[in-house]
């Protein structure tokens, strides 16, 4: 079909597919092996060129004879079946039936399939499809980007928007060397992790003197005498003596620590606090994310960002418990 929805003549379609096949056939062998297909996709700068797994899947689907090569007839059969599915999906997304897709129609199609995409990522997806940057996606632009998606040629199965968006994410996150690059979500998560670690270092250092006093008081054995003296003062109604007696363990602890080494004594053991912050944050973060994914599956959702408040609360609890269990042995070293 053409851009306005009219049926593309058989001769014109076959001629177009022949031109594409000849363009992909860089060695002019009349057939495409795996390397030949990869080189051809590089020639047209198609995003699938570096996605080895998808390339192999595409090769397996197209090569119906199983000889390791894609012949022209096999290529035509795959392309025609794929384009038919793409046209059907394009028409379903095109709500105003003007033969073009705008940003709101693409967003609606994603949301209808339970895919919630942030505005900036939706724009990036739209821009990748909108090749001429005119604010509209024509069927030709839609077809040219998605025509090699392997799932469309697999027993007539229409994978829908979820597979299409996954295909987009898989292709844009593969570099020319075939390595998967880190996407914005991962960079954002790493940023949160590092920021949390830095905040933990600062907060633990700021509260280190209080933590040191707590540990010192826990280790003392004469605190019971101070308690008895405080009780006696309370019975007699001696308020001044009560306050003095009640605060004596704290004053004695501060004096003892200061005499032991000055200000540095109040930060003894803080190195352990700082050392455990990053692994504790990493374990807490990883456990929290794993728990969210588990609860998302239990709720029948594919997106851990869209779980109930109760599940999020429980996931946070799991993260806290696991991280504390993992780093607890370090705390015992401070005694």
TrEMBL record:
Entry keyword Transport: yes
Primary residence: mitochondrion
Domain EF-hand, first and last residues per copy: 50-85, 86-116, 117-152
InterPro entries, per the entry: EF-hand-dom_pair, EF_Hand_1_Ca_BS, EF_hand_dom, MCP, MCP_dom_sf, MCP_transmembrane
Location in or out of the cell: Mitochondrion inner membrane
Domain of life: Eukaryota
GO CC annotation, single: mitochondrial inner membrane
Any Pfam family matching the protein: Mito_carr
Repeat positions for Solcar: 187-294
GO molecular function: calcium ion binding
Record's keyword terms, sorted: Calcium, Membrane, Mitochondrion, Mitochondrion inner membrane, Repeat, Transmembrane, Transmembrane helix, Transport
Swiss-Prot/TrEMBL GO biological process terms: transmembrane transport
Membrane-topology descriptor: Multi-pass membrane protein
SUPFAM superfamilies reported for this sequence: EF-hand, Mitochondrial carrier
Function as written in the Swiss-Prot or TrEMBL entry: Mitochondrial transporter that mediates uptake of thiamine pyrophosphate (ThPP) into mitochondria.
Similarity annotation: Belongs to the mitochondrial carrier (TC 2.A.29) family.
Protein name: Mitochondrial thiamine pyrophosphate carrier 1
